[in-house]
């Protein structure tokens, strides 16, 4: 079956789908991944076809508008900034999705392309499926992560969801034009999303562990939590010798990395991280990331991109921004975590890790201080209860097969004749 996976965003929005793609290829399917050109090598390393999307999340986050989005964090200000960024992103998104979907027999859709992909699949007469990295369907059991963990209460969340389906958005004009381009009846952006959520035959799979977030009892049939989708490691990858030597030269260090967050804040963050590691009296492996961090000190090593599945099990704890993929990698490794969330679902994951007992707490990245970070790191590495719970959770995660569940869902579609 010809499968096209569509995803845009940061590395954490792309890497999990390489694991899904690899499993689909192993099962005999023909797979393409459509994403931003910065991830072309990552895609091709899986043996899949790469299809380019014109968005450039790294440049967007590095712009003044992108920095303002990150400074806004969550809440109403964050929502306003999110809308502005969404308008910029959607300028070419529809045409990108149309081109990327050519020849597909089924589309697998990440959140950033979900609405456009759903409409393109409908116009093509092929099935599609939503693959979410964090809870995307409203429930009375917890707040919507897309609101940054902002709690409106069970009734408030449901009311907001119902109202949103009927509320105009700044995206509606472009959405009506896109529908016309596809030969579909005109509709609003929120109405498409509501249709996906409410259609009992539309599959929405969530790529995280039910041991971390159990499937809510009020989700409709067809909405499932299937387990993490682990990134595919590039064939032949070898760790840098300097990193191997550093790990062997002393006790397990603490990883610190903020992924795609806060580009342009290298000086501030590097200073805080270096000082916090010294104050916590731990060694550190610091990932430069899009912020361009360069920590200093005899007991600190700065690295570029290193596969988390190789690095994290060798850490005493992991400090990160709380992206869904990095969060899952830390849980898989069975090590305590300290989160420094910025926006979107990151504050929600920070609270979730505290609730499952593998994190002493979090500190928003924009408010990060040496004292707060050092205190959290010391708690994470000296209180053995966090490590015990992290190891127990990792054992449960290890027996799950999230990518296999996606393969099964695709093959159900194939057996049903592509419908």
Characterization of this structure:
- The protein is α/β, with parallel strands linked by helices and 419 residues long.
- The chain folds into two domains: 2-55 and 92-228 and 400-415, Glycogen Phosphorylase B (Rossmann fold), CATH 3.40.50; 241-398, 3-Layer(aba) Sandwich (Rossmann fold).
- 46% of the residues lie in helices and 12% in strands.
- The chain is built from 18 helices and twelve strands.
- The strands form two sheets. A seven-stranded parallel sheet has the order 3-2-1-4-5-6-7, sandwiched between helices.
- Helix 7 packs across helix 10 and helix 12 packs across helix 16 (370-382).
- The longest helix has 16 residues, at 11-26.
- The protein is globular.
Low-confidence stretches: none
**CATH class designation of the largest domain:** Alpha Beta
Largest sheet: 7 strands, parallel
> What value does the Rg take, in angstroms?
21 Å
Q: What is the share of helical residues?
A: 40-55%
Q: Mean pLDDT, as a whole number?
A: 88
- Total number of helical segments? 18
Number of strands: 12
Shape-level CATH architecture of the largest domain? 3-Layer(aba) Sandwich
Work out the count of structural domains.
2
Distance from first to last alpha carbon: 13 Å
Spatial strand sequence of the major β-sheet = 3-2-1-4-5-6-7
Strand-and-helix sequence, N→C?
Answer: EHEHEHHHHEHEHHHEEHEHEEHEHEHHHH
Q: CATH H-level name of the largest domain... which superfamily?
A: Glycogen Phosphorylase B
Q: Which fold name corresponds to the CATH topology of the largest domain?
A: Rossmann fold
Helix-and-strand structural type:
alpha/beta
Pfam family, one: Glyco_transf_28
Domain Glycosyltransferase family 28 N-terminal: 3-83
Keywords: Antibiotic biosynthesis
Protein name: UDP:flavonoid glycosyltransferase YjiC, YdhE family
